[in-house]
Q: What sequence folds into this?
């Protein structure tokens, strides 16, 4: 049985060309970038090159790029880093996040709340879009940071980031966007987006796991979350993950070079999934916005089917699918994203997310549709 991977929002395979570029930094060139000798310089040069690659895609200066241990760390550093810095200066701070953020943002905001920071949660409409008026209404004189994700990991909804960022800029509030799902599918030009902070993680765009990058606009003050050495301009201590960072830079450059062609190839495959599954099964609802959604995301709520059983039966047929967030599937907690959309009922319902990628073919999509239709019929019968 062949395995068909429909879970690219959870993670992607490491690209072979990216691995090849990382290899020397896992073997021959093992120096610490902070060391003052030739081996240290080789590693430092590799970091500089990767920083330039990221800065080119983000349209920023390389001094505005910092490397992290991934998306969760970046989200924490952005939200807590700005809020804690603001709190120290003003004695009071307020944070605004959307209701459908990744838990790395939501739980960071909850942790701040326990330190006395005020937190507002922005609602979304039934398509999963944050409304600019809701942001305007939530702003307070002591709002330190607003965090709204570029695209959602469960339902693929793309937010009006540039419009939200303008409002924050006008009010002198720092704006962060979690662009983890957007990377490789949407433009990451921070000037066009107007954001102050932006987070990405390599393993969502065919790079290695455990390494991320952040754009930190010059002048934004971040209280470090990891204290120690002076790495990353004193904002993220610790010996750099040199091979991982080389992989992130290479993977981002590659993803950007393929981006437009890949989006053009994935969009009709995604639409086949959306129309095939919604068209052939009764009582199915597509979750997320019809147009403002990522080219790789097809997500649904299916009535009268148990979610865990659906995923298990698809898995037995070699289909790797998800109920949405990798972090909550398997637990009985309903997804906070679907709750925010208001699409859940008290009856049995399954959330299904199919996310496609570079390896996905038309034949794979046809097989997945047939299997989902068949499994749902069996579970209902
Ligand atoms: C995967 C993901 C993260 C977490 O990134 P890690 O590198 O796995 O820590 C954060 N936000 C979003 C939207 C994600 O999809």
A:
């Amino acid at each position: 049985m062949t395995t068909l991977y429909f879970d690219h929002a959870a993670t992607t395979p490491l690209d072979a060309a990216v691995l090849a570029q990382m290899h020397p930094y896992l073997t021959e060139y093992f120096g610490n970038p902070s060391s003052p000798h030739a081996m240290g310089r080789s590693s430092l040069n590799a970091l500089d090159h990767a920083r330039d690659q990221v800065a080119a895609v983000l349209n920023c200066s390389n001094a505005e790029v910092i490397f992290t241990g991934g998306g969760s760390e970046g989200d924490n550093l952005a939200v807590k880093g700005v809020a804690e810095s603001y709190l120290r200066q003003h004695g009071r701070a307020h944070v605004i996040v959307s209701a459908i953020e990744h838990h790395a943002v939501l739980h960071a905001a909850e942790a701040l709340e326990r330190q006395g920071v005020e937190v507002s949660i922005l609602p979304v409409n039934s398509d999963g879009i944050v409304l600019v008026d809701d942001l305007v209404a939530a702003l307070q004189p002591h709002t330190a940071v607003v965090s709204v994700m570029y695209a959602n990991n469960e339902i693929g909804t793309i937010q009006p980031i540039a419009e939200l960022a303008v409002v924050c800029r006008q009010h002198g509030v720092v704006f962060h966007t979690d662009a983890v799902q957007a990377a490789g599918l949407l433009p990451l030009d921070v000037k066009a987006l107007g954001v102050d902070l932006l987070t990405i993680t390599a393993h969502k765009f065919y790079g290695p796991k455990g390494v991320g990058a952040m754009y930190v606009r010059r002048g934004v003050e971040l209280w470090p979350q990891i204290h120690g050495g002076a790495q990353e301009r004193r904002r993220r201590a610790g010996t750099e993950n040199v091979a991982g960072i080389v992989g992130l830079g290479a993977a981002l450059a590659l993803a950007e070079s393929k981006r437009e062609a890949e989006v053009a190839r994935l969009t009709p495959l995604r639409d086949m999934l959306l129309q095939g599954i919604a068209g052939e099964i009764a009582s199915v609802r597509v979750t997320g916005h019809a147009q403002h959604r990522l080219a790789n995301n097809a997500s649904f709520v299916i009535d009268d089917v148990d979610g865990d059983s659906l995923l298990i039966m698809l898995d037995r047929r070699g289909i790797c699918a998800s109920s949405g967030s990798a972090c909550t599937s398997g637990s009985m907690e309903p997804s906070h994203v679907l709750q925010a959309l208001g699409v859940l009922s008290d009856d049995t319902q399954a959330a299904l997310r199919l996310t496609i990628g570079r390896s996905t073919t038309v034949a794979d999509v046809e097989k997945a549709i047939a299997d989902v239709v068949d499994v749902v019929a069996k579970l209902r019968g």
